[in-house]
Amino acid sequence: MAGGLHLEGIDYRFGARQALDAVGFSVAPGRFAALLGPNGAGKSTLFALLTGLFSAPSGTIRIAGHDLSRNPRAALARMGVVFQSPTLDLDLTIRQNLSYFAALHGLSGRDAARRIDAALDRLGIADRAGEKARGLNGGHRRRTEIARALVHGPEVLLLDEATVGLDAAARQGITDHVHRLCAEDGLTVLWATHLTDEVQDTDRLIVLHEGRVLADGEAGAIRGDQPLKARFLALTGAPA
Ligand SMILES: Nc1ncnc2c1ncn2[C@@H]1O[C@H](COP(=O)(O)OP(=O)(O)OP(=O)(O)O)[C@@H](O)[C@H]1O
Hints:
CATH class of the largest domain: Alpha Beta
Number of strands: 10
Family: Belongs to the ABC transporter superfamily.
Distance between the termini: 37 Å
Strand content: 25-35%
Mean pLDDT: 94
Bound molecules: adenosine-5'-triphosphate
Structural class: alpha/beta
CATH superfamily of the largest domain: P-loop containing nucleotide triphosphate hydrolases
Protein name: ABC-2 type transport system ATP-binding protein
Pfam family, one: ABC_tran
GO molecular function: ATP binding; ATP hydrolysis activity
CATH topology of the largest domain: Rossmann fold
Largest sheet: 6 strands, mixed
Keywords: ATP-binding, Nodulation, Nucleotide-binding, Transport
CATH architecture of the largest domain: 3-Layer(aba) Sandwich
Helix content: 25-40%
Order of helices and strands: EEEHEEHEHHHEHEEEHH
């Protein structure tokens, strides 16, 4: 596959603990893929490998067609990331948070301003641009982080438990926004979560458990005639 996200044969160990065991999957360009796994499944380890924080002893990671180990600059330039722990500067405005990030990517002046406006608009927070991040609720802070991850124009967006700590309405708002980024802007998304209600039937679904991929396909087909939660609990061996 030329673009999108492609992983093959990824192993990772913490000493004797095998955190990832021959993990492989592909996400086609413009698709929303949910990486669903209970705590400890290996999602954060996988994100650390995808973002170049750890390096995998084996296997291949390709981001928008670029091999992460052979050509990390090109691969990482095409990726946006929203980490599990919030990383906004609460004393800066929304716009300042994005400007700072744009500068880290070598963007400034009108080009940066245009990209920042477009990203804020995309997440529905353009009218809040002058407000300090501290005054925003959790949902708007998350939207700001997603907008910030889009400023440099990535093709692939990774989100690690992006809705942690949000109420149901804010969670729904964020998942809807990110689905729209795929459908309307052609972004490829990997959405890590442990919450089955964030997965839609038409999403691509990868179930990760104890470092292994247990299921990979269209979410509706994986759940069949069961609710996804029941199917997920059956796959991972947890009691329903
Ligand atoms: N620094 C570390 N040292 C040793 N073991 C680790 C370390 N980090 C993670 N692990 C182990 O690796 C496995 C995968 O952990 P990981 O954090 O990737 O899971 P996760 O799916 O992201 O879970 P969570 O949602 O709780 O973050 C777990 O068994 C965990 O205990």
